């Protein structure tokens, strides 16, 4: 079983020919809303990958709440651990440029009201060998409590170090598996401007210090990771991206699902990388997440 403890948002997405520079206004050419939030995105990815998934988090008592949960509910995700709290649902304001790159501002709202007690509740129904997936869009104390409780129960914890907050390096040391992009990994390693050789050396150093499985996503260059003392690499697909906003979350959800399914580490990395590539071919975080059949066909 996989439990995802994290954020649930409504994404407000505007598309432009190019992203604006600071202080600049550019004309948009499209607008859409889509369910999002890193927690919800990763939960939906794991569910579409074919695994049983609990989503734990919070939404508000507003018009966005039902829409924010709609795709999770439609996919058969267990939503019994989602609280409905006073105030608005979390939102993300997203600009997507013509090259598929994006800029995002997140307003936590209900996500900011998730507590350490909620973490205890989420962990309470889990058993040794289950998988807990977390991100950093809910309060730090709740994430820390969830990681500590998971370790005490022998639950495998996967922490995606996104978004990059000041506590990320400290929290990263508490998880069994850490997933980070290049920038997030540099913060974790305390070293900026790494090339491929320096990144691999930092992976080895951190792995020797902590024993953790460390995974670094590299966009179009695939993924590099270390587990049990061995470096692994995997490639996604060669694509022309439409929108990269859901790629990282899709990777995380598919990776967790693949481990839960019993795939070996290398196969899990490859499957997740292909899924992340496919997520770049459609707009929106959750609408772009591929099904297990889509991924299998491309592998």
Descriptors:
alpha/beta, single chain, 4-stranded mixed sheet
Briefly say what this structure is.
Pathway: Carbohydrate metabolism; D-ribose degradation; D-ribose 5-phosphate from beta-D-ribopyranose: step 2/2. It catalyses: D-ribose + ATP = D-ribose 5-phosphate + ADP + H(+). This protein is of the alpha/beta class.
Set out the fold topology.
Blueprint: E1 2-5, E2 9-16, E3 28-36, H1 38-48, E4 53-59, H2 64-74, E5 78-84, E6 90-96, E7 102-107, H3 116-124, E8 131-134, H4 140-153, E9 156-160, H5 168-172, E10 177-181, H6 182-189, H7 196-210, E11 213-217, E12 223-227, E13 230-234, H8 247-261, H9 265-278, H10 292-298
Parallel strand pairs: 1-4, 1-8, 2-6, 4-5, 8-9, 9-10, 10-11
Antiparallel strand pairs: 2-3, 6-7, 11-12, 12-13
Helix pairs in contact: 1-8, 3-4, 8-9, 9-10
- How much helix, percentage-wise, in residues? 25-40%
Shape verdict:
globular
Q: Strand order, biggest sheet?
A: 5-4-1-8-9-10-11-12-13
- Low-confidence sequence ranges: none
Note the total helix count: 10
Largest sheet report: 9 strands, mixed
Rounded Rg? 18 Å
The helix/strand series, from N terminus to C terminus, equals: EEEHEHEEEHEHEHEHHEEEHHH
Classify the secondary structure makeup into a structural class: alpha/beta
What does this structure look like?
It catalyses: D-ribose + ATP = D-ribose 5-phosphate + ADP + H(+). Belongs to the carbohydrate kinase PfkB family. Ribokinase subfamily. It is an enzyme of class 2 (transferase). Residues 2-291 form the Carbohydrate kinase PfkB domain. The chain has helices spanning 38-48, 64-74, 116-124, 140-153, 168-172, 182-189, 196-210, 247-261, 265-278, 292-298; strands at 2-5, 9-16, 28-36, 53-59, 78-84, 90-96, 102-107, 131-134, 156-160, 177-181, 213-217, 223-227, 230-234. By secondary structure, the protein is α/β, with parallel strands linked by helices. Strands 5-4-1-8-9-10-11-12-13 form a nine-stranded mixed sheet, sandwiched between helices. Helix 4 (140-153) links the parallel strand 8 and strand 9 (156-160). Helix 1 (38-48) packs across helix 8 (247-261) and helix 9 (265-278) crosses helix 10 (292-298). The protein is globular. The model has no long low-confidence stretch (mean pLDDT 95).
